[in-house]
Design brief:
The protein contains 7 helices and 6 strands; from the N terminus they run E-H-E-H-H-E-H-E-H-E-H-E-H. It has a single domain, classed as Alpha/beta knot (3-Layer(aba) Sandwich). It is α/β, with parallel strands linked by helices.
Length: 172
Protein backbone atom coordinates (compact mmCIF):
# COMPACT_ATOMS: atom_id res chain seq x y z
CA UNK A 1 0.00 0.00 0.00
CA UNK A 2 1.31 3.43 -0.95
CA UNK A 3 0.67 6.25 1.44
CA UNK A 4 0.85 9.87 0.53
CA UNK A 5 -0.03 12.90 2.59
CA UNK A 6 -3.67 13.81 2.17
CA UNK A 7 -3.95 17.08 0.33
CA UNK A 8 -6.48 18.91 2.43
CA UNK A 9 -6.31 21.64 -0.18
CA UNK A 10 -8.25 19.51 -2.70
CA UNK A 11 -12.04 19.34 -2.47
CA UNK A 12 -14.25 17.15 -4.64
CA UNK A 13 -17.58 18.91 -5.18
CA UNK A 14 -20.75 17.16 -6.34
CA UNK A 15 -23.27 19.66 -7.65
CA UNK A 16 -26.90 18.59 -7.33
CA UNK A 17 -26.24 14.84 -6.97
CA UNK A 18 -29.37 12.74 -7.20
CA UNK A 19 -28.42 9.25 -6.01
CA UNK A 20 -27.19 8.48 -2.49
CA UNK A 21 -25.18 5.56 -3.88
CA UNK A 22 -23.05 8.00 -5.88
CA UNK A 23 -22.41 10.15 -2.82
CA UNK A 24 -21.21 7.12 -0.85
CA UNK A 25 -19.18 5.71 -3.74
CA UNK A 26 -17.57 9.11 -4.36
CA UNK A 27 -16.52 9.26 -0.70
CA UNK A 28 -14.96 5.82 -1.04
CA UNK A 29 -13.31 6.77 -4.33
CA UNK A 30 -11.56 9.84 -2.97
CA UNK A 31 -10.49 8.13 0.24
CA UNK A 32 -8.87 5.26 -1.67
CA UNK A 33 -6.71 7.85 -3.43
CA UNK A 34 -5.71 9.71 -0.26
CA UNK A 35 -8.22 12.55 -0.29
CA UNK A 36 -10.78 13.43 2.36
CA UNK A 37 -12.72 16.54 1.36
CA UNK A 38 -16.13 16.06 -0.22
CA UNK A 39 -18.72 18.80 -0.66
CA UNK A 40 -22.31 18.66 -1.90
CA UNK A 41 -24.24 21.48 -3.53
CA UNK A 42 -28.02 21.20 -3.22
CA UNK A 43 -28.13 17.41 -3.11
CA UNK A 44 -31.36 15.68 -4.03
CA UNK A 45 -33.69 14.72 -1.22
CA UNK A 46 -32.08 11.29 -0.88
CA UNK A 47 -28.50 12.10 -1.94
CA UNK A 48 -27.29 12.89 1.55
CA UNK A 49 -24.35 11.38 3.43
CA UNK A 50 -26.54 9.87 6.14
CA UNK A 51 -28.75 7.94 3.70
CA UNK A 52 -28.51 4.18 4.21
CA UNK A 53 -27.36 3.57 0.61
CA UNK A 54 -24.67 6.26 0.83
CA UNK A 55 -23.38 4.62 3.99
CA UNK A 56 -23.48 1.20 2.34
CA UNK A 57 -21.43 2.37 -0.66
CA UNK A 58 -18.88 4.29 1.42
CA UNK A 59 -16.92 1.20 2.41
CA UNK A 60 -14.33 2.32 5.00
CA UNK A 61 -15.02 5.96 4.08
CA UNK A 62 -17.75 6.85 6.54
CA UNK A 63 -15.41 9.44 8.05
CA UNK A 64 -15.39 11.23 4.69
CA UNK A 65 -19.20 11.11 4.58
CA UNK A 66 -19.46 12.42 8.14
CA UNK A 67 -17.25 15.38 7.28
CA UNK A 68 -19.01 16.18 3.99
CA UNK A 69 -19.73 19.88 3.58
CA UNK A 70 -23.12 21.02 2.28
CA UNK A 71 -23.69 24.22 0.36
CA UNK A 72 -26.68 25.99 -1.13
CA UNK A 73 -24.75 27.33 -4.12
CA UNK A 74 -21.72 26.30 -6.12
CA UNK A 75 -20.27 29.76 -5.47
CA UNK A 76 -20.35 28.99 -1.74
CA UNK A 77 -18.73 25.59 -2.29
CA UNK A 78 -15.83 26.83 -4.45
CA UNK A 79 -15.43 30.39 -3.17
CA UNK A 80 -12.31 29.43 -1.19
CA UNK A 81 -10.61 27.73 -4.15
CA UNK A 82 -7.70 29.26 -5.97
CA UNK A 83 -8.39 26.89 -8.86
CA UNK A 84 -11.82 25.59 -9.82
CA UNK A 85 -11.90 22.66 -12.23
CA UNK A 86 -15.20 21.78 -13.89
CA UNK A 87 -15.76 18.35 -15.38
CA UNK A 88 -17.80 18.08 -18.53
CA UNK A 89 -18.74 15.53 -21.16
CA UNK A 90 -19.95 18.28 -23.49
CA UNK A 91 -18.41 18.64 -26.91
CA UNK A 92 -17.41 22.08 -28.13
CA UNK A 93 -16.16 23.45 -24.80
CA UNK A 94 -12.86 25.16 -25.56
CA UNK A 95 -9.66 24.55 -23.63
CA UNK A 96 -10.78 21.23 -22.17
CA UNK A 97 -7.97 19.07 -20.82
CA UNK A 98 -7.78 15.43 -19.82
CA UNK A 99 -7.35 14.42 -16.18
CA UNK A 100 -3.92 12.95 -16.99
CA UNK A 101 -2.74 16.20 -18.57
CA UNK A 102 -4.15 18.47 -15.88
CA UNK A 103 -3.35 16.38 -12.78
CA UNK A 104 0.35 17.28 -12.42
CA UNK A 105 -0.44 21.01 -12.29
CA UNK A 106 -3.34 20.53 -9.87
CA UNK A 107 -1.23 18.27 -7.67
CA UNK A 108 1.59 20.82 -7.63
CA UNK A 109 -0.84 23.58 -6.63
CA UNK A 110 -2.36 21.46 -3.85
CA UNK A 111 1.07 20.41 -2.57
CA UNK A 112 1.95 24.09 -2.28
CA UNK A 113 -1.19 24.68 -0.21
CA UNK A 114 -3.30 26.32 -2.91
CA UNK A 115 -6.91 25.22 -2.72
CA UNK A 116 -8.29 23.22 -5.62
CA UNK A 117 -11.96 22.36 -6.17
CA UNK A 118 -12.89 19.69 -8.71
CA UNK A 119 -16.57 20.02 -9.59
CA UNK A 120 -18.81 17.26 -10.93
CA UNK A 121 -22.35 17.85 -12.14
CA UNK A 122 -25.65 16.08 -11.68
CA UNK A 123 -25.84 12.50 -12.96
CA UNK A 124 -28.35 13.35 -15.68
CA UNK A 125 -27.65 16.95 -16.66
CA UNK A 126 -24.02 17.57 -15.74
CA UNK A 127 -22.97 21.13 -14.98
CA UNK A 128 -25.03 23.98 -16.41
CA UNK A 129 -23.55 27.00 -18.22
CA UNK A 130 -23.46 29.13 -15.07
CA UNK A 131 -21.60 26.42 -13.17
CA UNK A 132 -19.12 25.92 -16.02
CA UNK A 133 -18.50 29.68 -16.07
CA UNK A 134 -17.17 29.52 -12.48
CA UNK A 135 -14.31 27.26 -13.55
CA UNK A 136 -10.76 28.30 -14.30
CA UNK A 137 -10.32 25.17 -16.40
CA UNK A 138 -12.45 22.29 -17.67
CA UNK A 139 -11.59 18.65 -17.99
CA UNK A 140 -13.13 15.76 -19.86
CA UNK A 141 -12.40 12.09 -19.39
CA UNK A 142 -11.68 10.63 -22.83
CA UNK A 143 -14.00 7.81 -23.87
CA UNK A 144 -13.83 5.47 -26.82
CA UNK A 145 -17.54 4.77 -27.17
CA UNK A 146 -20.46 6.99 -27.99
CA UNK A 147 -21.63 6.69 -24.38
CA UNK A 148 -22.32 10.30 -23.38
CA UNK A 149 -20.81 10.12 -19.89
CA UNK A 150 -19.56 8.01 -17.03
CA UNK A 151 -21.28 7.22 -13.78
CA UNK A 152 -20.67 10.10 -11.35
CA UNK A 153 -18.71 8.06 -8.79
CA UNK A 154 -16.64 6.45 -11.55
CA UNK A 155 -15.71 9.89 -12.88
CA UNK A 156 -14.70 10.99 -9.37
CA UNK A 157 -12.58 7.84 -9.06
CA UNK A 158 -10.76 8.46 -12.34
CA UNK A 159 -9.93 12.08 -11.53
CA UNK A 160 -8.82 11.19 -7.99
CA UNK A 161 -6.65 8.42 -9.43
CA UNK A 162 -4.91 10.79 -11.84
CA UNK A 163 -4.25 13.23 -8.99
CA UNK A 164 -2.86 10.33 -6.93
CA UNK A 165 -0.60 9.28 -9.82
CA UNK A 166 0.65 12.85 -10.14
CA UNK A 167 1.45 12.86 -6.42
CA UNK A 168 3.36 9.59 -6.80
CA UNK A 169 5.37 11.03 -9.66
CA UNK A 170 6.43 13.96 -7.45
CA UNK A 171 7.67 11.69 -4.65
CA UNK A 172 11.42 11.79 -4.05
Amino acid sequence: MLTLPVHTATTFVLSRPHYPENVGAAARAIKTMGFARLALVRPGRLAVPEHEMALKMAVKARDVLAATERHETLVDAVGHAGCVVATTSRRGVSGVQTPADLAPELERMAAQGHSVAVVFGNEKTGLDDHELALAHVCLRIPMAADQPSLNLAQAVQLVAYELFRAALARRP
